[in-house]
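Re: beginner question about structure tokens

> Can someone show what the tokenized structure looks like for a real chain? I only ever see the sequence side.

Sure, here's an example I had lying around. Input first:
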Amino acid sequence: QVQLAESGGGLVQAGGSLRLSCAASGRALSGYVIGWFRQAPGKDREVVATSYSSSPPYYPDSVKGRFTTSRDNAKNTAYLQMNSLKPEDTAIYYCAARSSMTSRYDYWGQGTQVTVSS
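And the corresponding structure tokens:
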């Protein structure tokens, strides 16, 4: 079992930056694929970054060039650096973990609110 806990959300002005953290306990994150997702009110959940242990990360066009994911294996923590934030980035952000052998994310954090004001 892996327990995930996000932190780092908050209120920021457009153009600003935030760094989200996803601290893991129970097992080492290094063996998992880490996904970052967001869900805005009335919208479907969408992926904003996928971090692989041995491949380049994936970003959708909506955040490419602005968001960067990283990991600190010594701290068993993943990060999502978000720059040049836009009001449309406002959402609850979640991190999730899955085995590289499956497509389903089995472990989810509780989410952290990100609000970008215009």
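Each token stands for a local structural state, so reading them left to right follows the chain. The chain has a mean pLDDT of 96.
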